[in-house]
């Protein structure tokens, strides 16, 4: 059974304090890994897609990386507006077209 | 371009009633998925439709049903509502199976 585990569950940072969020996964084969940002009361907002180990994607202060067993979302010099829940989802190549979501990491950045 | 739109945004029902939630995908997207999200958890998969055919069904009771129309919009129906059905119901669309899903802002369903 596919599993997606995100850590930590919650993270508090000071503005400017860089850190990383982790998404570890167990699948028979990876078709794709997706990162989303979700603000309270809103739907998840798509950030990145990663398809193969070694791939990296960047957007402003966020950088996503992928290995064969996990993905990291690096946040460089975060600002209070980066506060949100970050979700990871994995698409298995085993025939299903349904991504499995992790429970998310709740990030709070204090000014 | 318009994103995924869902209606209504909020809904209050009582136990035993039924509800219909609606979703319009991004133009050109043929796949629509429905998810249930409760506080503190990731979205839980309910249904996926592609080209009007059901492609997948999650571990939800038969009280939950859905369909996709020729214009690719979709409805999620829930019968005999229970208190535990209170959640944020999300709709997502994608252009094909390997592409990321794009979400609407959901319908907040409260059961009294």
Note down, in words, how this protein is organized:
The complex is a heterodimer of chains A (111) and B (112). By secondary structure, chain A is an all-beta fold. Chain A has a single domain (3-110), classed as Sandwich (Immunoglobulin-like). In chain A, 0% of the residues lie in helices and 59% in strands. Chain A is built from no helices and eleven strands. In chain A, strands 2, 4, 5, 9, 10 and 11 form a six-stranded mixed β-sheet that branches. Chain B is an all-beta fold and 112 residues long. Chain B is built from no helices and eleven strands. In chain B, strands 2, 4, 5, 6, 9, 10 and 11 form a seven-stranded mixed β-sheet that branches. A four-stranded antiparallel β-sheet of chain B has the order 1-3-8-7, with no helix packed on it. Classes of the chains: A mainly beta (111), B mainly beta (112). At the A-B interface, strand 4, strand 5, strand 9 and strand 10 of A face strand 4, strand 5, strand 9 and strand 10 of B.
Q: What secondary-structure arrangement, pairings included, does this model have?
A:
The complex is a heterodimer of chains A (111) and B (112).
Chain A: E1 3-7, E2 10-14, E3 19-26, E4 30-38, E5 45-50, E6 56-59, E7 62-66, E8 70-75, E9 84-92, E10 100-101, E11 105-110
Parallel strand pairs in A: 2-11
Antiparallel strand pairs in A: 1-3, 3-8, 4-5, 4-9, 6-7, 7-8, 9-10, 9-11
Chain B: E1 5-7, E2 10-13, E3 19-24, E4 31-37, E5 44-50, E6 53-57, E7 64-68, E8 74-78, E9 87-94, E10 102-103, E11 107-111
């Amino acid at each position: 059974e596919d599993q997606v585990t995100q850590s930590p569950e919650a993270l508090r940072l000071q503005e400017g304090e860089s850190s990383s969020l982790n998404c570890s996964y167990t699948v028979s084969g990876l078709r794709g890994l997706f990162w989303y940002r979700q603000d309270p009361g809103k739907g998840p907002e798509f950030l990145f897609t990663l398809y193969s180990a070694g791939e990296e994607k960047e957007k402003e202060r966020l950088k996503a990386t992928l290995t064969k067993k996990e993905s990291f979302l690096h946040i460089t010099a975060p600002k209070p507006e980066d506060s949100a829940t970050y979700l990871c989802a994995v698409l298995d190549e085993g025939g299903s077209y349904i991504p499995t979501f992790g429970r998310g990491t709740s990030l709070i950045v204090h000014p | 371009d318009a994103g995924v739109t869902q209606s209504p945004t909020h809904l209050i029902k009582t136990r035993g009633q039924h509800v219909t939630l609606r979703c319009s995908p991004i133009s050109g997207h043929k796949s629509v998925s429905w998810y249930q999200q409760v506080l503190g958890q990731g979205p839980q998969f309910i249904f996926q439709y592609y080209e009007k055919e059901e492609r997948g069904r999650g571990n939800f009771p038969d009280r939950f049903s859905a369909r996709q129309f020729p214009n690719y919009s979709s409805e999620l129906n829930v019968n005999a509502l229970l208190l535990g059905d209170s959640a944020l119901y999300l709709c997502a669309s994608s252009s094909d199976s390997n592409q990321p899903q794009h979400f609407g802002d959901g319908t907040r369903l409260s059961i009294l």
